[in-house]
Prior knowledge:
- Helix 1 (21-52) packs antiparallel against helix 2 (54-65), helix 1 (21-52) crosses helix 3 (67-94) and helix 1 packs parallel to helix 4.
- The chain contains four helices and no strands.
- It has one domain (21-130): Fumarate reductase/succinate dehydrogenase, transmembrane subunit (3 helical TM bundles of succinate and fumarate reductases), CATH 1.20.1300.10.
- The chain is an all-alpha fold.
Amino acid sequence: MANVTNNRPLSPHLQIYKPIPTMVMSILHRITGGALYFGTLLVAWWLIAASTGAAYFEWVSWFMGTFIGRLILFGYTWALVHHMLGGLRHLMWDLGYGFDKHFSTKLAKAMFAGSVVLTLVIWVIAYIVRA
């Protein structure tokens, strides 16, 4: 009897697996969950600045209005929307729906596209309301 395990890797990794949409969305869901911890610090910073005084609040508002600040806020918005949609996908799975291979692949692709579109819609509405 031949030992068929000799040519197998000891620990499968990304060089072995071909990335598929559901796998990528699972990884992104975990990354966005971690990013939300840091994004929540931004919200806390903003609230602390608002309670500290007008001068500090104006400085924080200035920073958030810079290109870097807006880029960070845009990324936080996308992470929040993407993680929310991932949570809805997991809720659907918890209810016993969406396990078909082709449907789950389409859902993963739609989730990514939806997160980008919803983020852009949120930012467009924010700019319209602000003007």
